[in-house]
Amino acid sequence: MERGRLIKEIAAERIQLLYNLAVGTVGRDADLSSEYVKTLRRISAHYKVGIPDRIKDTICKECNLVLVPGLTASVRLASSKGYLVYACKRCKKENHIFYKAPVKKRTAGKS
Ligand SMILES: [Zn+2]
Prior knowledge:
alpha+beta, Single alpha-helices involved in coiled-coils or other helix-helix interfaces, 3-stranded antiparallel β-sheet, 3 helices, 3 strands, flat, binds zinc ion
């Protein structure tokens, strides 16, 4: 039990470390940066450690590029839907980042 917990802690640390590396290299070598992200995803899957939302939200789901506004992504606001659209400049995939919980059901009443 104790050992399992420790391994997950180390894995979570590695994920953070690899993310930092990916952010640090994306400006000069996008391919290397993507490799860091791929490794990060492998660690997450292998050790069954979730990737924190703040990291997951800034990685392209399609090509594993770190999404930096103005550099690797263009950002626009879909305010009626409650999310930001991070469009990856490499693969053009649109990644949605919710800044409020999705509205499930509208109940009748004053808005
Ligand atoms: Zn992409």
